[in-house]
Amino acid sequence: MNHSNQPQAEQPSAIVDEKGPWPVVTRRVFHSADGRKQVWSSRHHRKSLLIRAAVEAEGIALTLLRCLWMPGRLNWWIGAIFAFGSLFFAWASILFLAPTLAKALSLDTAGVNAIYFAGSIPFTIAAYLQLFQAANAGDFIDDGTRSPRRPKLFGWRPHDIGWLSCALQFAGTILFNFNTFDAMIPSLTWFQKDLVIWGPNIFGSILFLASGYMAFIEACHAHWAWKPMSISWWLVFNNLLGCIGSCWRHRFPSSCRDRKTPGPRLSPSCSR
Q1: Cα 5 to Cα 233: distance, rounded to the nearest angstrom
Q2: Which residue, 31, 24, 29, 25, is CA-closest to 39?
Q3: What's the rounded Cα separation, in Å, for the pair 28 and 139?
């Protein structure tokens, strides 16, 4: 007989409802022996998020404000490291759009691309932390053992849509590390650019798109849903839009997009 990871008194006794995008289940409702209802959500369980009742009781504004400084939580570090990497991408993009500014700062193409590469490192670190978190989330209903589990560096949970999303995202960040590093190599031919810059870029974008959609349907419990009152929905929805934009931006090889304009010539980079 299966048991909950929670103490015996809190163990759910029966599944009364479950839903999710076929063929996975991302939400289950349990009724315990004393009649209490317990809701399991894949994303909330994976990230140890606050349940909606707790958020509503505290207030969304206060919850968001409190979350600005939570160094004791892995989620906080993941978000902070992603944001730190984004600063590099934003700065490099500004230099790309304002070549006179890059020139004033004595930054050539290689220098601006180096900023993109620097930003890709925090992204990979944060993506790995998400994968580590998903690999060690455990099952809501396990095999009955209560002994501590040895931490897993990567894990293997292909049945878990949250783990799959994180695994694909991590693989995509690795490809963008190669993409942004190769963009710093001078004097590449158009074929070499397509091979070592555009190739990792487009495959990384495809992995991001698949990862973003998996994260979206995990939070929606359906292949599509409109839930503007949910913070989780806005997070995964905006992330999915970014993934679509990245994939669309990098759909053509660099040799088809070369422009004869002055200023830094920047290679495609991670936009997630």
Answers
A1: 27
A2: 29
A3: 13
Q: Rounded mean pLDDT of the chain?
A: 82
Report the alpha-carbon distance of residue 153 to residue 136 in Å, rounded: 8
CA atoms within 13 A on the CB side of 116: 32
Q: How far apart are the C-alpha atoms of 15 and 64, rounded to whole Å? A: 32
62-68-71-73 Cα dihedral, nearest 10 degrees: 60
| Whole-angstrom distance, CA of residue 136 vs CA of residue 150 | 9
Query: Could you give the CA distance from residue 31 to residue 228 in angstroms, rounded to a whole number?
Result: 28
Q: How far apart are the first and last CA of the chain?
A: 43
Query: Which amino acid makes up residue 87?
Result: L
Q: Which helix (H) or strand (E) holds 163?
A: helix 161-182
Contact assessment for residue 177 and residue 141, using Cβ atoms and an 8 Å cutoff: no
Q: Dihedral of the CA atoms 177, 235, 80, 149 (nearest 10)?
A: -90
> Cis link prior to 21 (omega < 30° from 0)?
no
- Report pLDDT digits (tens) over 237-252: 999 999 998 888 777 6
Q: Does position 143 have pLDDT exceeding 50, yes or no?
A: no
4: tokens are 């909950």
- pLDDT tens for 180-189 read 998 888 888 8
Distance CA 18, CA 31 (A): 12
Q: Tell me the C-alpha to C-alpha distance, in Å, between residue 142 and each of 3, 31, 148, 197.
A: 6, 17, 12, 44
Average pLDDT of span 214-234: 94
Task: Give 41's strand partners.
Answer: 27
Q: Considering the entire predicted model, what is its pTM? A: 0.81
What tokens were used for 30? 């349990």
Torsion of CA 220, 226, 230, 235, to 10 degrees: 70
Judge whether 270 and 117 are in contact, CB under 8 Å.
no
